[in-house]
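User: Design a sequence. Structure:
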């Protein structure tokens, strides 16, 4: 206890706040109550409730129609035709159908929860939960209450249309898997065999190497040291508007690189596969088939942008990094009497992903 002549105590007793100085006053904090419940129009007007119900199941049926349209678009614009217009329409209309199907389900579900489901506020006290019989009974009761409040069991039109929309929304994705199935035909017995399809391209002995996409043939003398050129077979440029163009181009794409002859490591059986330091390798990555088109001039590495596989151009395009399982196939090349680069033969091994070679 302080003494009566304590100067600090006298100072405390005589202190008064200066004018304009805010003084904090501690008051008890009260938990705010729930605001008054405001009835929705659908709660007050039966006609509004019926209109909301019709809106919800109409949206769900629109979703069903959009899913069916996505499947129809897959058949109306077959991507297998190889025509660019069909590929564009295939992607556009299938995408629009799937997007509308999912959007209609989402909007319908939100409108259902806001306009039709129970709108009464309630307070749920927190308590310790344990795996007892009473907990199981409470969980069952909670499902029963949710069913009653949402009207899922009573409103059959909404329930059935929602189930139909959800089931239909999955159908386009299932149908799209058809594109992965074999499509053999009497005229093309290997059409469904990826191993046979990728074992041969349109490269043939004596076929000129040409710039992609112009089709202009390439002279060996025109390639500068360190250059990297995207190459296609010259006849391919003449069939750009024909069926099968994209398939043939996807297999036959080549990257042409010029190095110093002494920089190239070649086994004896491949000594004549390059010409004066010029080498040609397939652009199709042996991992999952992405185009290998990024060339690092200083390191002589080819980089696949999809999964970062790297290949050494100076050493038979061997894999030096990444998930690719084997080197890029090499196209044997030479020059003709006019100095144009030509192919000695087709690739001697399948192009593309390694997993296609599994039987």
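Assistant: Done.
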């Amino acid at each position: 206890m302080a003494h009566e002549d304590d100067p600090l105590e006298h100072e405390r007793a005589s202190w008064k706040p200066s004018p304009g100085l805010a003084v904090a006053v501690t008051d008890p904090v009260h938990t705010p109550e729930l605001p008054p419940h405001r009835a929705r129009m659908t709660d007050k007007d039966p006609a509004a409730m019926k209109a909301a119900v019709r809106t919800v199941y109409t949206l769900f049926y629109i979703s069903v129609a959009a899913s069916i349209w996505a499947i129809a678009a897959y058949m109306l614009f077959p991507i297998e035709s190889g025509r660019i217009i069909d590929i564009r329409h295939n992607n556009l209309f299938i995408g629009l159908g799937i997007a509308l199907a999912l959007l209609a389900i989402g909007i319908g579900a939100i409108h259902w929860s806001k306009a039709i489901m129970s709108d009464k506020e309630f307070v749920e006290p927190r308590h310790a939960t344990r795996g007892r019989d009473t907990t199981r009974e409470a969980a069952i009761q909670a499902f029963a209450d949710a069913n009653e409040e949402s009207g899922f069991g009573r409103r059959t039109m909404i329930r059935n249309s929602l189930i139909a929309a959800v089931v239909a929304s999955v159908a386009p994705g299932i149908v799209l898997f058809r594109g992965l199935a074999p499509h053999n035909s009497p005229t093309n017995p290997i059409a469904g065999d990826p191993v046979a399809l990728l074992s041969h391209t349109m490269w043939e002995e004596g076929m000129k190497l040409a710039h992609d996409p112009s089709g202009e043939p390439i002279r060996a003398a025109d390639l500068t040291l360190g250059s990297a050129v995207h190459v296609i077979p010259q006849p391919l440029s003449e069939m750009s508007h024909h069926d099968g163009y994209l398939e043939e181009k996807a297999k036959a794409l080549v990257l042409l690189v010029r190095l110093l002859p002494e920089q190239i490591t070649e086994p004896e059986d491949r000594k004549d596969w390059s010409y004066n330091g010029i080498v040609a390798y397939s652009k199709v990555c042996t991992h999952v088939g992405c185009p290998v088109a990024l060339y690092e001039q200083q390191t002589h590495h080819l980089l696949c942008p999809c999964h970062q596989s790297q290949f050494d151009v100076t050493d038979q395009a061997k894999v030096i990094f990444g998930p690719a399982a084997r080197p890029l196939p090499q196209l044997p090349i030479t020059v003709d009497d006019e100095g144009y680069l030509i192919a000695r033969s087709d690739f001697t091994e399948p192009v593309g992903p390694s997993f296609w070679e599994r039987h």
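The mean pLDDT is 83. The domain at 194-357 is CATH 2.102.10.10 (Rieske Iron-sulfur Protein).
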